[in-house]
Amino acid sequence: MEVLTFDADRLRQNLKFCWPEEVTARNDEEEFDDFEDATNLVKCLWPGWHLPLEEERSLLQRYTVSDIRLVLVGRPGVGKSSTGNAILGRLAFSPGGPSSGTSSCCWQSEWVFGHQVTVAETPGLSETSDDAVKRDISTCVNMLRPHAVLLVTRVGSSTVENLATMRQVEEFFGMDVSRYTRILYTYANSAAPDIERQRRATGPELLFKVGYRYHVLNNNPDHWDGQQVYDLVQAVARMVMAKGGEVYSIRSTV
After folding, report:
1. For burial by CB atoms within 10 Å, which of 43, 91, 99, 207 has the most?
2. Which residues form the signal peptide (predicted)?
């Protein structure tokens, strides 16, 4: 297992242009079992750093990730169906799927850039989600055993709303789900959004909670961006390798 260790406080003291309100050291000495988590924190501490960071891998991690399983979560109406379609590159989910309010979970698979990608769409989360929805999501996750959970949110959504959704995800999935969660900002216009502005608008609490893992995706089929899908799939594949193929499951159900 690869481990990247550095003294976050000492690094922060040497940087003149970091955002101290966005970074909170968990320990005097940070230790990570995911290289991406470490590099994301370094980039937040030192946004002007553009040179590659060195990564030390064990021989056990030098294998090809062929199978990637993703779970889409989010509030009703955020576009999980169209997001799943964009990732798989085909009309796999109908707009009136689980996000429309029904308590059902479904998944579809497709070969995407050399990986067998399975995407599960879950019912929309809301403050009124009942026990039936919780049981369905729990059963879906435990059957699929995903490698990553994608928190789908629209570009421009409020920080309060996103934090509330993440709290529900933690309530349904367990507190350690944040280690597998990536924020997926979606939009449907032809023009790409200002992702740096969106990142700042999201606030430090949620980004820190998910290890500064976030992506942007155009889920409009008329403006499909293969590069965005490729970047997302490759990032998850790297995470799978870093975790040694570890998957997520919910230990207790409602």
Report:
1. 99
2. none
DSSP 215: E
Cα 135–Cα 139–Cα 140 angle in degrees, nearest 5 = 115
Other C-beta atoms closer than 10 Å to the C-beta of 23 total 18
Q: pLDDT tens across 157-167, in order?
A: 888 888 888 99
135-165 as b/e, with b when 16 or more CB fall inside 10 Å?
A: ebbbebbeebebbbbbbbbbbebeeeebeeb
For 69-123, what is each residue's pLDDT tens digit?
999 999 888 899 999 999 999 999 987 655 444 457 888 999 999 899 999 998 8
101-109 long-range Cβ contacts below 8 angstroms, 24+ apart = 101/76, 103/130, 103/132, 103/133, 103/136, 104/136, 105/136, 105/137, 105/139, 105/140, 107/140, 107/144, 108/84
Distance from CA of residue 34 to its chain's centroid?
A: 14
Look up residue 191 and give its amino acid: A
